Amino acid sequence: MDNFIVNNILMKRTTFSTLVVFLFFLWPLLSLSQTAADYNKKAKECYDKKDYAGVISNATMSINLTPSGEAYWWRGVGNYYSKNYQVAASDYTKAITYYTSGTKSSLASLYVLRADCYFEMEDYESAFEDYDEALTKYEYSTNKFKVYKSMALSVDRAGYPDDAIGYYTKAIEQTTSSTELAELYLYRGDAKMAVGKYTTKEIVADFTLGITKDNQNATLYFKRGISKYQDKQYTESLPDFLETIRLDLKKTNPDSFILKRLAQSYGICGGIKNFQGKPEEARADYMTALKYDTRNGYIYWDLANMFKKTTSYTDVVDYYKKGLTYLTNTDDHINCYFDYYLYERIKLRYGPAIQILNDAIKTHSSAKAFYWARAYVNKLRKEYTNSIADYDKAIAMYKKDTLSLVDIYIERSNVLIKQNNASDALKDIQRAVVLKPGFTSYYTLGRFFKTTMKQNELGDGNLQKAMQMSLAETRTKDTTADYAYASAMMGDKATTERLVSKLIIEASAKAGKLAAAFHDAACMYTMLGNYTKALEYLDQSLAAGYTDFDHLVFDADLEALTSLPAYKAILTKYKVPVPIL
């Protein structure tokens, strides 16, 4: 190779290496020529381009050179839009320290910006304090609508809806935008519902105002429907749910929230139509609801309750089980368990009923109603020891509920009688008399003396008190079924027969009351020893539609009939289920 070319190449390499070394040492000097103001300017340029990482980088360079309020402000902005809310709040806090009370406008803006960070972090109380500081101390005026709205949402989400209402109103006064007004009326209506002191009319008024501003807002119709529905204005609420459905079905690619609302709306429509006596339409709505949300426990629960008298046992049980699977609210879960238990009990399936109660107690050990219910079912199954144990638990749990205690003591006394423990049974009845000296307690005491202790004089004396209590409790001189029961227990045939005739005539004029009146007549004639008449009324009761088989089969007043072939024939005739113990 030509020596000239080789030397030229070597010289160029040497020159390039020297330049690199020179630039390496010169670079810090060149960077020092960029001032903090330059970096702040670059931070703004990055912000305009929505390059928030660039905002943070340039603001940090500015801070490293010369810390300032502006630099911390810009870095706070960058971190906020990068969703680094805690870091952004810290930057705004540092920025605040660089401003004095003479720069109210800047301080007001910084407090609002820091409040926005707290809001996003769900620290609503701190957010509210900063918004309030910006408004009251530094006279923030740039966007009062946004601040009042944020203050309202902060106190609302912090759990103070009553306080939020006033701030929603102030926000409403700061805007003329129909979209913003519709949203604010929605929020204020929600807050009024949460407070509990506003009438349905006042709540509905807000949702209606919202609809006048945006009649395509499905949420406003849904909320208005809910407020009416909760006030038992079922028919009035139906159009709102139908409109919610119409608007939601128009949405393309609906999200999970919309799908769940469709399910809720169809489910509520189903409940309303059931209330209106349209079971087939109700069923169709419920089934449509499940297409949109297969995990809606309320719909399964409603289906079970709605069709427990008309749908197959297997379907109803499946509905209850699915309801229990998907319900998450504790109170609703407890109530669904109780409805399921009652369904099995009404079907006279006492073994399955006990299993449900056992499961319910494992899940909700503090739910006192389950212990009382299990005590009662075990009494029917003649599991007296278990029954007493549960009654003992129930008494301890109901110690502040006088009315319930009266019934529990009376029920436990019946079990104690079955165990031939008359002395403890008497103590329980006497406790009931002391707690509530009314018809029920005196009637039970009178019956105990007559039938268990065979002390007719004491029995009749307490039964007469029961009759007096019956008249006092009804606040009328007229006699009731209670009065007739007491006269029958005393063996007063003439009075009882006269009252039975009277009660049946009265029941004939009231829809759905005749079957119960015939059942009462059967009980009273059994107590009088007229079994032929008692069986006649028992037959008439079932013919008239008496369906309380749980009470019928274990009614102590009918116990004398249960061994008679005619009694068993009547139960067979009307397909009364055979108890599964």
Structure explained in plain terms:
By secondary structure, the protein is an all-alpha fold. Helix content is 77%, strand content 0%. The chain is built from 31 helices and no strands. Helix 17 (313-326) packs antiparallel against helix 18 (330-346), helix 18 packs antiparallel against helix 19 and helix 26 (481-489) packs antiparallel against helix 27 (493-508). The longest helix has 29 residues, at 3-31.
- Ends distance: 113 Å
Q: Any low-confidence stretches, pLDDT <50, length ≥5?
A: 1-32
Mean pLDDT: 92
Rg, please?
Answer: 39 Å
Could you give the count of β-strands? 0
Coarse shape:
elongated
The helix tally amounts to 31
In brief:
By secondary structure, the chain is an all-alpha fold. It is built from 31 helices and no strands.
Can you tag this structure with a few keywords?
single chain, 581 residues, mainly alpha, 31 helices, 0% strand
Helices and strands in order:
Blueprint lengths: L2 H29 L4 H13 L3 H14 L3 H13 L3 H12 L7 H17 L3 H13 L7 H14 L3 H13 L4 H18 L4 H14 L4 H13 L3 H16 L6 H20 L3 H14 L4 H11 L5 H14 L3 H17 L3 H14 L4 H13 L3 H14 L4 H17 L3 H14 L3 H14 L3 H19 L6 H9 L3 H16 L5 H15 L2 H13 L5 H6 L10 H9 L8
Helix pairs in contact: 2-3, 2-4, 3-4, 4-5, 5-6, 6-7, 7-8, 8-9, 9-10, 10-11, 10-12, 11-12, 12-13, 13-14, 14-15, 14-16, 15-16, 16-17, 17-18, 18-19, 19-20, 20-21, 21-22, 22-23, 23-24, 24-25, 25-26, 26-27, 26-28, 27-28, 28-29
